[in-house]
Amino acid sequence: MRRRTEAPASSNEADNADKKGPDQRRQSPAEANGGVSYRSVLINLGKCLLLIIIIPPFLNYASLQREGQMLLPKDGQIVDVGLGQKMHLLCKGQGKPVVILDSPTGMSSDVWFHVQESVATLTKVCTYDRMGLGFSKRLMPNETTGTEKVWGMSTTGRMVDDLHRLIQAASIAKPFILVGSELGAFNGRFYSHIHDAYGKVLPTFQARQFSAATGLSRMLIILGAIEPTVKGENVSEEVVQRQKYLLSNPAHQSSAVDEHYFLNESAAQVRDITKFKPLSSRVSVSVITGDSFDEQVPAHLNQMVAELQRKFLEESYPSANQIHIKGADRRMIYKKPSAVSQQLRRLVNQRQARQQSE
Length: 358
Description:
The chain is of the alpha/beta class. The protein is 58% helix and 10% strand. The chain contains 13 helices and seven strands.
């Protein structure tokens, strides 16, 4: 009896299995296809993320290597200043005194384009890129010149040491006029003290550095979201392309960040050198100012900076020649280059007349 009852049961189970089998076979491919579709979406998404994260930096690096040679200014030269360092120097015009232009904080020598072209018709005018900016290669972290151990990285003391070695290596004869803007002005004053020569921003630059390193800057330039600082009808296409190259160059942006970060330390170095070695009486100082420090910042900040500048000039340059340019701010170098050039030409004429009388 058990065998008879068990046998039909086994037969029924087999029949039920046969009935369920087709349904299961119909569901299984659907479920399997659903699983494959989900996995394929994840794989494709991963590929897209991989392309976005990896490809732009590699393309940007390859483009920088090619453009670094193509966009080097034709009249410029890479000067070996010793200690394993090489700096970019661009001189135009002939005559004396030589005018040396030092750029604002974190910027390349291209900002002086208009001023250099104008004053070069009167005398020799040289621009240069500080170490790590523009076409002046920065030493790797494991390399050292020894000077940063004394002055610190990206500070006035180290920059002035670089500039002095550049002047010597390029055989730029005295007398010369040092012209600087922002950090470049610190450098000029520090140089004059040592060698008796004649003459809320940081996060933004950190974002620029990150954007350049990831290749985002190049994409934004292509889309027209980022434009060069120096532009206009009289600016050559070469200068425009050079600025785009530097906006995409993480090495340039990194040095710009460092210069802004150590700006207060550079100012402290200038104050210290004033105490230990007063400015020589042979050095004449002219200070060019505008109506405001930066027209893009709030009025109360402009007033604060203007007051600080006034006190600084009274304490440091009591006998300085004050030159005011109406409607100008810290961007006067490339926003109002004709006004700056006019004042520089006047200073050069005065110096040339003095040399002739001597």
